[in-house]
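Bump. Still looking for FAD-dependent tricarballylate dehydrogenase TcuA structure tokens.
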Amino acid sequence: MIDVLVIGGGNAALCAALMAREAGASVLLVEAAPKEWRGGNSQHTRNLRCMHDGPQDVLVDSYPEEEFWQDLLKVTGGQTNEHLARLVIRASSSCRDWMRKHGVRFQPPLSGALHVARTNAFFMGGGKALVNAYYRSAEKLGVQIRYETPISELVLEDGKFIAARTESGELIHAKACVLAAGGFESNREWLREAWGVNERGEWPADNFLIRGTRFNQGVLLKFMMKAGADIIGDPSQGHCVAIDARAPLYDGGICTRIDCVSLGVVVNRDGERFYDEGEDFWPKRYAIWGRLVAQQPGQIGYSIIDRKVVGRFMPPVFPGVKADSLPELAEKLGLPVENFMQTLSSYNAAVRPGTFNHTVLDDCRTEGLTPPKTHWAQTIDTPPFYGYALRPGITFTYLGLKVDETAAVRFNDVPSPNLFVAGEMMAGNVLGKGYTAGVGMSIGTAFGRIAGTRAAAAARGAEQSRSA
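Sorry for the wait, here they are.
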């Protein structure tokens, strides 16, 4: 019998498998995707948010624990477990050497990644390179890997893991198990159930695009809920970003994100603004915009800029719609010209002069406008003008299994002796809502490593019990 079974194939699963193997356990990792699509959402990541008290290799200045915690507290609105959040924050300061040992390489932040040189360590080659490095290391260490092996259910006895059943009916027994199979963001029916019908009679989830893998259907999460595992989180909350409306249904990844939102204005299909585009630095606010767009008519928005800000943001994969005048841009985007021009005229008239600097919270703002634009407000008056249609792009969901610092799955607040969870399946303990760049990888890395270590120890305990 295998010591530790790891279910999932992304960052959290790989961290668990590597740690369990390093602890001396025999490990089998099962991934639902075929080999060419392995890695879950982790293949689309690019960095890890890291606490550090001084300059460290690819990180500049310092990013102390308290500042990291305050950043997380702000974006979650207090919907976070402080004990577990601080555990993740502290773990983020010491994991990079271990990651390097397993082949992960880091680079200085990309030139277009504003404001994160101090807080985030970037992977050389992005998340795909990180995933491939971990798989190579796992294979070298003797971790068994099976692709195209989706798990449909677990065999449990009083909270104890006995075996996992594949979709084909095969039973895989193990002394301990780590669940790291992702959320339910690719399950359209579950998303519809979570978001429901809005006041306009629309099903918002029908217009969501999935930024990551199509394989995160939430099968095991739903099974664990029915099995009585303790649950945390709101099913409608998740990492939801405004992305290019032309993005593919799945696996568009980072390149489909529209990063000029804070440098212009955003209007809905009626040509009206609906939120402060300059509220805070983009890496701290980008993950609220998917939800904001989801609340608009037709679940669509339009980011509008002029020539002055071209080159100041990471260019998306698709070019914007271009026009020599604002009325022409409205027509090309299919927006009501009169409403659109009224919105832009009111905005331009409300802009107060300041010293524009998109690397700081500058003094360029609007006055007497609702909603305001707090920073980086410049008149939009210099052709050519550009517009990008936006759709909600869901990355991962926050409904998950409740845990403590041991990463054990809990039933009626009693921890399982040999079943653990990591990654998206428990991220809601730390992320009740909101997001800040790189923290998903911090959570997956911290709890993946804890879960793998604990699973190996549980397997050793089971072996000792049998031999006693």
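The CA atoms of residues 50 and 92 lie 5 Å apart.

Edit: fixed formatting.
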